[in-house]
Design a protein that fits this description.
There is one protein chain. The protein is of the alpha/beta class. Helix content is 30%, strand content 16%. The chain has a 7-stranded mixed sheet, sandwiched between helices. A 5-stranded parallel sheet has the order 9-2-1-13-20, with helices on one face. α2 crosses α20 and α8 packs across α9. It is globular, with a radius of gyration of 25 Å.
Amino acid sequence: MTTAIPAGSEADPKGAPRRAIVIGGGISGLASAALLAREGYSVTVLEKQASVGGRAGVWKKDGFTFDTGPSWYLMPEVFDHFYKLMGTSAAEQLDLTRLDPGYRVFFEGEETTVDIRSDLDSNLELFESIEPGAGVKMAGYLDSAAETYELAKKYFLYSTFEDLRPLAVGPVVSRTPRLIRLLTETLASFAGRAVHDRRLQQILGYPAVFLGSSPYAAPSMYHLMSHLDMNDGVLYPQGGFGQVIASIANIARDAGVEIHTGATVTRIVLELDPALRAPEPEKSVYDYETTEFDTNVIDRDELRRVLAGEVDAHGNGVAAAPSGPGTSTAGAGAAADSATPPRASDRSRVGGVHYLDEEGRAHELEAELVVATADLRHVETTMLLPELQTYPESYWQKKTAGPSAVLVYLGVTGELPELAHHSLFFTKDWKGDFGKIFGASKFGRFGPKGPTSVPEPASIYVCRPSATDSGVAPEGHENIFILVPIPADPGIGHGGEDGQGDARVEKIADAAIAQVAEWAGVPDLAERIVVRRTMGPADFVDDLNSWKGTALGPAHTLGQSAFFRAGNVSKKVDGLVYAGGSTIPGIGLPMCLISAELVIKRLRGDTSTGALAEPADETAEIAPLTYPAEASTDTSADTAVVAEPGD
């Protein structure tokens, strides 16, 4: 348990603000940074890519603007709540459009499609028309979904689970038997008790994919997702999700946050006893400018351990071994094996990070707080010494990764009215698809997993943002994004432009294009493609340090949901906290925004289950984002602060 840090507390008697480093410039990193700055911290964000956004990136080519990741704007109140915490609102920052239909569903072997509308009554009538009696049952199902969603928001989503006693309240206790059933029964089983038509069951089960899971593994607690699309409806931010990222980056910068891109963090280092601090080397030692200890010459944690007598100083250059991306410690080898864990009386505390800039120069940055929002496995197993890892490799070996994906970005000539803004393509072998992706077990839900493979055909998702936003494609063209769920296996390969990716990735992409062409009735689709790019599991590893190449993060199974999911604080290093999709509350942009808020609650020692109170008076003068967002003009060599990813 970490010691609570009062909001805006000072690092020294002189009144200098406490320093915080945020690792990762995705939505959770940017939001964490903005909220920390609001709390009075001096914040620096370190993002390894050339632009911010993380999974919610942007790629531009030949007049097309593609969102490279998230494309569903759900839980709008979560976005608005974050903006209000920062003194503004979603209405001021974004131009939101309500989609109708929310999405269209294609079914294998059937000519008739199903449109999920933007209002509840139409959707109930739709279910009734497909399965007599299903309308009434769906009304009850969606009432349950709405109640469960409100219960989750009030007692679970905004909890750090540092103390479980706040959960022992009337509304939760009185629903305990029902909650137990919702946690232990699968979403597929729960939906199957409400409707019997295969197509309707698929519509109700698909939200599990948003959670990086399968309807045959996700707890039925997540039927609450159906409330989001069928009751609340689906929105779209004009300009794409790059606008969301740009707005939060601008807000963070306006709050005083420094954003460094092209900055690859290699180590999280500990606070050193001044008596053990090594003298500054002569500048002549270096072949480049540096103002701090050269992390590529000697590792400061190793030096502290040697001086403290924790390890022997070997003559084989252990302390001088280089530290770089993908290494858990500079020359950890024998030193890590012979080290003893930190004594309880000498609890470790974070001191900052080592990072490499885009030119490969080494830097050290000190801070009293580090918020790691990158892939949690990568952070724990490569940036911390083994004895300081709360979630070591042995932890991940027992966990389930969400699926990976082949992503296909297409610029197409002509119109594609056959596709809605969001379209889903469901195969008949629905359960078999998920079995191939996750590895079907012969012993039921909790048995050992079998081998994985790529479904053929697959149940895929297609986004056509140009149906709603004329700015994402040149006139007379369409912008298409295809997501093919596949096993989390980096060995499937990398993508590339113009069909130049690895063979397996391009084969999967070709099959998906052919599937859309056939099922949607667009036989000349392939011939009309003028821009093409693919991404595969290996790209998620290279670009996002993603565990097993998962496109989303750890799956939302029973053992990886709520208080069973990885927590947001290191149990070994004080001052090290976590945010993002790997930790609580979980996967998705709204969850990542909430995870940023949980950082603040953790530091305040706030164990309440509700969201932070919004400011009564909007004292922050934050100008609304100009649409479309313009990139920052900051061109400093070390820092590249961007307003819009992908520029």
